[in-house]
Structures are given as C-alpha cells and as structure tokens.
Amino acid sequence: MRIIFFLLVNLYLAVFHPVYANDAASDSVSAHAAVDGERADLLFYAVSLIGTAYRYGGNSPQTGMDCSGFVRYVFSNAAGLQLPRSASEISMTGESVDEQDLRPGDLVFFDTMKRAFSHVGIYLGEHRFIHASSSQSGNIMISDMHEKYWSQRFEGARRLLSLPLPGNP
C-alpha cells in the first residue's frame, strides 16, 4: 500500500508540478525510507482526497472541506484521532517540531489571513505539504513550502503521530 501512495504522489507531481518530474524517482526512495505504518496510511488517505473541492467550514469530501476540516477528516479516519475544529486550535495539540525536523504526517501551519495559525496542512516530505486551498486551485492540492508565498507565511509545525522512524527502537 505504501508503494501505491508514493506512486500516486509522484504521478501527481509529474503531471501538475513538472519541475519535480525529474526528481520523482529519487524522491520516492528517500520518502519511502522515512515513512512507515500509521504515517504511510495517513498520507495515503490524505493523497486520495486530492482534487476534493474547497468549501469554507466544510468537513467532508462529498460537500467540500476547508483546511482544518480536511486535516480533521484525515486524522479521524486514518489514525482515529479527534482534533479541534479550527487551525489555531489544532496548533495547540501535539508537540512542537522545528522545520528542519519535519517528518511526513506532521502538521504545518501558516498565517494566510493576517492572524497566527490560520492555515494548516499535512507535511508529505521533500518540503511538500497537502492542504485544502481556497485560492490557488480551490481544492485539496500539494504545495511546496519553499514557494515564496508559503515560506513567508510559515508559522510552525506540530507532531501528533509520535511513531519512531524505521530502524529506531
């Protein structure tokens, strides 16, 4: 199942983000080494929702989702975790993580509305995250944290899945 997840991510990146097409094979190898078990299931579930419509206040694939509704839906259905409703409330859960220590499955937060922690997404690895975008595409999509828009608005990250990396006890 993890291989399917990485194939889906790489296919999406090759089609919609041609700049990553040449790196797709190497990215899947490095990402595969860092993702296992519950994290892989969570990421696979999140990626399966790419293209779902954005709707402010929405929390289901059938009617559309906003950023926090998307994150809540994924964590509830893939990991059995119940999260608060808003991005700012979600930012108070889990443990704080430095940007250089991000792992796939961590939550990343941004200031997109001139207020702290107003946007949330799920980190995929290789500086990419999946989120419900109201303006870029109007749906759930993958973005690069190093894009100027996101890098200027990064607020912090939280870890809810405290699984050790493969090879660690």
UniProtKB/TrEMBL annotation:
Pfam families referenced in this protein's UniProt entry, alphabetically: NLPC_P60
Molecular function GO terms recorded: cysteine-type peptidase activity
InterPro entries for the chain: NLP_P60_dom (IPR000064), Papain-like_cys_pep_sf (IPR038765), Peptidase_C40 (IPR051202)
UniProt keyword Protease present: yes
Keywords in alphabetical order: Hydrolase, Protease, Signal, Thiol protease
Domain of life: Bacteria
Signal sequence residues: 1-21
All residue ranges annotated as the NlpC/P60 domain in the record: 36-161
Example GO biological process: proteolysis
Family the UniProt entry places it in: Belongs to the peptidase C40 family.
Name of the molecule in the record: NlpC/P60 domain-containing protein
